[in-house]
Design brief:
By secondary structure, the protein is α/β, with parallel strands linked by helices. It contains 5 helices and 9 strands; from the N terminus they run βαβαβαββαββαββ. The strands form 2 sheets. A 7-stranded mixed beta sheet has the order 3-2-1-4-5-6-7, with helices on both faces. A two-stranded antiparallel sheet has the order 8-9. β8 and β9 form a beta hairpin. α1 crosses α5. The protein is globular, with a radius of gyration of 17 Å. The two termini are 15 Å apart.
């Protein structure tokens, strides 16, 4: 009997790749039935590329700065992705808009450092999100993994986790708490997808219970 292929994931990032490293470690521990097929960075010096190379995973730079607009940048991204047979694209700290182009609907996820639909959309990324959260006076923030559509942070939500905003929080302390939530959520979301448990219905996702028949 032919073994079922593991879910092959392309990771797109722009920075240090801590979420990528977390995925590698989760896979190494046998807690996630998936593999990283390629890592693509929008910045040539993104340290996430070095993390991939250390693991023997193809690591490509497609610098956003070398492309005049979003469309030409996505031309280059799609050309790079076409060389790899991936089932899922994970945007983990990727700071540009990824265009689905009729090929990747329901196959791209993004992690956002807030509870969508709050503090999201174009211009809300990284510490900017935490600054806005602290300035607003809200008592909860968190992390969201969602499917990607054609607008920033607007696709169906897959999983969220709330974290408290403490009285003495600054951007760094709040950001650390949110990143810890992200490290829990991203492998969980990919695991659900790998197990075939996720169904998208319009603007919502449905998560089926685990199959315990094996």
């Amino acid at each position: 009997m032919k073994a079922k292929r593991r879910l092959r994931v392309a990771v797109l990032l722009s920075g240090s790749g801590t979420s990528l490293e977390n995925l590698f470690e989760t896979i190494d521990r046998g807690e996630l039935e998936a593999e990283i097929g390629v890592v693509i960075a929008s910045k040539a010096k993104a340290f996430g590329l070095e993390r991939a190379k250390r693991r023997g995973v193809p690591a490509l730079a497609v610098p956003r700065s070398e492309h005049a607009d979003t469309a030409s940048f996505n031309d280059a991204l799609h050309q790079a992705l076409d060389e790899y047979d991936v089932d899922l694209v994970a945007l983990l700290g990727f700071l540009s808009l990824f265009e689905l182009r009729g090929k990747y609907e329901g196959r791209v996820i993004n992690v956002h450092p807030a509870l969508i639909p709050a503090f999201c959309g174009k211009g809300f990324y990284g510490d900017r999100v935490h600054e806005a959260v602290l300035a607003s006076g809200v008592k909860l923030s968190g992390a969201t993994v969602h499917f990607v559509n054609e607008a920033y942070d607007q696709g169906p939500i897959l999983v969220q986790e709330a974290v408290p905003v403490l009285e003495d929080d600054d951007v760094e302390s709040l950001g650390q708490r949110v990143r810890e939530a992200e490290r829990r959520l991203v492998p969980r979301a990919i695991g659900w997808i790998a197990a075939g448990r996720v169904r998208i219905e319009g603007a919502r996702t449905r998560i089926a219970p685990p199959d315990n028949t094996a």
